[in-house]
Amino acid sequence: MKVFIDGQYGTTGLKLESRLKERNDITLLQLDFEVRESFAAKKPLLEEADVVFLCLPDDAARESVAATSPSTLIIDASTAHRTADGWAYGFPELSAKHRAAVKTSKRIAVNGCHAAGFISTVYPLVSSGLLPASERLSCTSLTGYSGGGITLIDAHENNRTAGDKYHSPRPYALGLAHKHLPEMKAITGLNAPPIFYPVVGDMLQGMLVSVPIWNAQLTKKMSAQDVQEALAAHYADSRFVTVQPMDYALDSGFLDATACNGTNNLEIFVFGHDEQILLVARLDNLGKGASGAAIQCMNIACGLDEAIGLE
């Protein structure tokens, strides 16, 4: 199987390459670094590949899609097609419908990293009728700086001095128009997107996405334990999504944002009591939030074990 990573020298592309190059069932088609932005140079590889991963800005992703045969499997890690007609949303654990779409589609849009955390906790509640689609939610996400690409990685690792701003958690997208909001609304089925507050932490990878819910927002009286049990039942057969028990052993009361790093795992936690509930998803922003999810989708679409290259 011939695979081309369009955008192979970016953060997600490099993670994809490092995972895929270890496999003996794949031939990676390579583009020289010097011509990485040349459409003429990559067009023959788009035509030759059986599978194309897109790790590009949105406009460049659309251009590559237009130049690729409808019979070629395209897995897009950009924002361009996550809510587009004709594209499967690449989060197969959400439902049997989502898994079937990934399995049969030639066009798959991989979830955003923040969106994966929000959707994983909210979708089961909305789809089961436990949380009305009309509810207004908020979401806070603490993420590693690798999500900002090479420029932000360089700023944190090479252009910093003791006591400078890169040691501090830094909120961003404060205009409340983050690019993940359309999929957070569309995939969960909510009538409105959440008020979303993303924060970059001083860590390369890792993510904690939290969503607070009042018991009164639910359609029936449920404690935090009841919600945990509902989510655990929803994901009971999932390979990579785990709902942790209420008595999960925290680290001296703290929840480590980096514990899923290097994996394609997403862990869901439920905290709270009879009145207030806090949903938290933990994942690697470059794993289940990007390259890991992309490889999982390729495996499913190609009829392979979904965990190949991910465990």
- State the shape: globular
Range of helix content: 25-40%
CA distance, first residue to last residue = 20 Å
Strand order of the largest sheet: 8-9-7-10-13-12-11
Spans of at least 5 consecutive residues whose pLDDT stays below 50 are none
Total of DSSP H or I helical runs spanning 4+ residues = 9
* Largest sheet geometry: 7 strands, mixed
Q: What proportion strand?
A: 15-25%
The beta-strand count equals 13
Radius of gyration: 19 Å
In terms of structural class, how would the helical and strand content be classed? alpha/beta
H/E element string?
Answer: EHEHEHEEHEHEHEHEEHEEEH
Which whole number gives the mean pLDDT? 94
What's the topology here?
Layout (H helix, E strand, L loop, with lengths): L1 E5 L4 H10 L6 E3 L9 H10 L2 E4 L3 H9 L6 E4 L11 E2 L6 H9 L2 E3 L3 H15 L10 E6 L5 H10 L11 E2 L9 H8 L6 E6 L6 E8 L9 H11 L6 E3 L22 E7 L3 E8 L3 H15 L10
Parallel strand pairs: 1-2, 1-3, 3-4, 4-6, 5-6, 7-9, 11-12
Antiparallel strand pairs: 7-10, 8-9, 10-13, 12-13
Structural description of this entry:
The protein has helices at residues 11-20, 39-48, 58-66, 96-104, 113-127, 149-158, 181-188, 224-234, 287-301; strands at 2-6, 27-29, 51-54, 73-76, 88-89, 107-109, 138-143, 170-171, 195-200, 207-214, 241-243, 266-272, 276-283. The chain has 311 residues and is of the alpha/beta class. Helix 1 (11-20) crosses helix 9, helix 4 (96-104) packs across helix 9 and helix 5 packs parallel to helix 7 (181-188).
